[in-house]
Amino acid sequence: MTPEPRPTTTANRRAFLRTATAALAVPAAAVLVGEALPGTAHAATASTDLPDFAPVPIAATGPALNEQGYFVGRIKGNLYWVTDAYYQAMFLSTREGVLLVDAPPTIGNNLLRAIAEVTRANGRPSKVTHLVYTHSHADHIGAAHLFGKHVVRIAHSETRRLLRLEADPNRPLPTVTFDDHLDLRVGGERLELAHHGPNHSPDNIFVYAPDHATLMVVDILYPGWVPFRNLAVSQDIPAWVKAQDTAMSYPWKTLVGGHLGRLGVRADGEVQKRYIADLTDSVKAAMSLDPTPYFQKYGPSGNSWAIFKTYLDAVAQQAAGPVIAKYTGVLAAADVFTLDNAATMLESLRIDAGLLGPFGTRP
Questions:
Q1: Among 9, 90, 192, 277, which is least packed, fewest CB within 10 Å?
Q2: pLDDT in tens, 159-173
Q3: What does pTM read for this prediction?
């Protein structure tokens, strides 16, 4: 399974990504739960000269990438992971072929290279026979088309419905779907797939490898980092918060979170839960902010949206401040996305929890 040569523009893109991530890379042994494959990474040091934002803590960074712009390593046994420092995929090398979970387009054809690297070493088939979609979002499965028409594509039934609406040729429809649980066995290996309800998206599933004590759940936990903006752009914030507890209820030792450059350990989940709890408490406290100046300034003009915007922005700003101060140096990008996350938590508390502040029932 050797990919065809790629155009010069693609090579330039890989060079750009390699340069962009080199400053964030540290020796693999410092961050890997599993094992590095021989020759897959070269140690580098984290940069402390980052423009505009606080430096990324070394503990948040992953292994250095190879010349092709990826890292592949063993988690345990025949279970492996691939990252480009932005996204992650996971695969099982079985005696019948490869069982892949997700196909992020930023990794793209490097998935084929990583799989070939592993299977050349272990003598097992390199063909991807099964592809699991964790959910329908293009940033995680947009390279699914690379694996041909005959791969068995497995997903939640809601993923099939969503992809049918999208009609994206890069994300072919799943050929096997399930509603609640699916015990997937291929070539002597197994994964347990489960849907615990909506969270980041309506269809996002949990993928557990019980023989390897590894959980892959995407866009829920971000090892070493604060969640992506707007609380991972999640469609159901209360369910997304609850999904963190669901993830921690699994007896995993290693987490594949789908994003960024390293694997997770259980302490990462506990830190993120504390971050979310602190963010929630800080937003609730900030909602006591006096709205009078905002009504006085914009009320006479009749600009209702200006009242809402300036007041809610001020609440989010006030809420974010102490959380940023507490987690800068603890979680990467605390100063980058905490304000966005505070604004999203504020809206969820207002519309989901009914904490309406000055916009509640008129006395």
A1: 9
A2: 999 999 999 999 999
A3: 0.87
Question: Exposure of 99 by Cβ count < 10 A (0-12 exposed, 13-18 middle, 19+ buried)?
Answer: buried
Q: Give the Cβ contact number of residue 157 at 10 Å.
A: 14
Burial pattern 200-210, b for ≥16 Cβ within 10 A else e, equals: bbbbbbbbbbe
Q: What is the Cα–Cα distance from 251 to 92, expressed in whole angstroms? A: 19
Give the C-alpha separation, 5 to 140, whole Å: 23
pLDDT band, very low/low/confident/very high, at 357 (cuts 50, 70, 90): confident
Give Cα 294 to chain centroid, integer Å.
37
Half-sphere exposure (Cβ direction) of 5: Cα atoms closer than 13 Å: 2
φ, ψ at 71 (rounded to 5°): -130, 135
Cα dihedral: 79, 82, 87, 92 (round 10): -30
d(CA 98, CA 77): 14
Q: What is the largest CA-CA distance in the chain?
A: 75
pLDDT digits (tens, 9 = 90+) for 250-277: 999 999 999 999 999 999 999 999 999 9
If we measure between CA atoms, which residue out of 117, 112, 119 comes closest to residue 93?
Answer: 119
User: Cα separations (Å) of 12 from 135, 237, 259?
Assistant: 30, 38, 23
By CB neighbour count within 10 A (0-12 exposed, 13-18 middle, 19+ buried), where does 169 fall? exposed
Three-class SS state of 129: strand
Residue 115: is its pLDDT beyond 60? yes
Q: Contact 192/227 with Cβ under 8 angstroms?
A: no
Q: Are 144 and 137 in contact (CB under 8 A)?
A: no
Nearest alpha-carbon partner for 46 in 28, 29, 61, 36 = 61
The interaxial angle of helices 266-286 and 334-351, nearest 10 deg, is: 60
Take residue 331 and report the two structure tokens written for it: 């979680």
